[in-house]
Amino acid sequence: RAELASRLSALIAEHAAAGSSFLAAADARREVSDYPGMARALAGAAASAAAAGDPAGAAALYLRAGRSQILAGGGTARAQDWLSTAERLARDTGDRSVLAAIEALRARRP
Q1: 60 contacts: CB under 8 Å, gap ≥ 6
Q2: What is the reported pTM?
Q3: Which of 19, 24, 66, 109 is the most exposed place for a label (fewest CB within 10 A)?
């Protein structure tokens, strides 16, 4: 239900509401151990943050989405897309902590 609300909010450009709903959906997915679903919801929250003009918040959320997708054991291409977006946004905003976390994740990947 939270995911439907988040998508509707995104469609009508209510980015803050969409972001909050996506984060609620991520929490719900985590509670039932649906980690790929949690990663998708985090990516939705990241896109909402970016659309709302919060690139630093979007970078952190894309990082979380990518890391969650990798830890869930699937969707490596999707995870890399999210991490690349996080990296671009982090470079744009000068967020060294996100950049370091991405570098550490990539160093651990085979």
Answers
A1: 86, 95, 98
A2: 0.84
A3: 109
